[in-house]
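This follows on from our talk about sequence and fold. Go ahead and set the record down below:
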Amino acid sequence: MRRPRKNRRKRSWLRAVRNLLVVALFGELAAALLTTPLLAVRQVQVTGARSISANDILSVAGVQAGTNLLRVPTALIRKRISILPAVRTVRVHRRPPHMIVLDVTERRPHALVRTGDTAVVIDEESVPFHTASAATKGMCQLVIPRVGRVHLGRPLKSKQLDVALECMNTVVQALPGVTSIAVDAQLNLCLNIGAFKVKLGQPEQVPRKVALAASLVKGTPSLLDTGEYLDVSSPDCPAWKPRELASSPNQNQQRGGAAGSSVMAQAGGSLQWSPHAEMNGGTKPLLR
């Protein structure tokens, strides 16, 4: 038996009124939460900051005391704080009833880059975030050609820097005494161990070249004191140049005009003299 149409209309009308009342109730509740002083911001806490001053972060964040906790623009605050070059990521948390937490992750020093007259510290993403200071003297330097104006907080884009970083990852393990890695415009690599240089040449076979240089330096510790440079750009025919030839050019004339009239022989990972061959420019090959 069908219900009267009048009853069905009445039930539909009651359901519509109920829904309107529920929406109005939620609206009033939301308005109350957004305006109540019980959720006013009274404290802003900064976590994760070490090298960055908490006051600098608070100043940039611009969180106003007394603002309703639900009205705090978290996305805008993240954007403001991310402007600081040393900030890698930031998260903004609401902690009812009165606290905002700014959780900061700082960039970590990865290398010191010198380009032209500028020296900056970069992180693993090649983003410069600090200028060089006394605290960075112990870091390995990457010396590359000028890349234009350097902006803190913006990634450095340079093929030479990419080559230097890749080389550094290999060098740190094999030659921990390296103080700087230089890359010229033609991508030629040169390692500096104090005043001694290791010429790697082009960025091919870098692990092999570095391993060879490490073996020769370890086998002949005096090489760092007596040599001007070690050239492993051709790993099948490494060569070196004694420092005395560079500092005393007149010695060549005393030796009959030949610049470096000796050959080096490699035996058991060390270097030995073999007095029978003449090399131009004072460079001595390592016979293997």
The chain has eight helices and 15 strands.
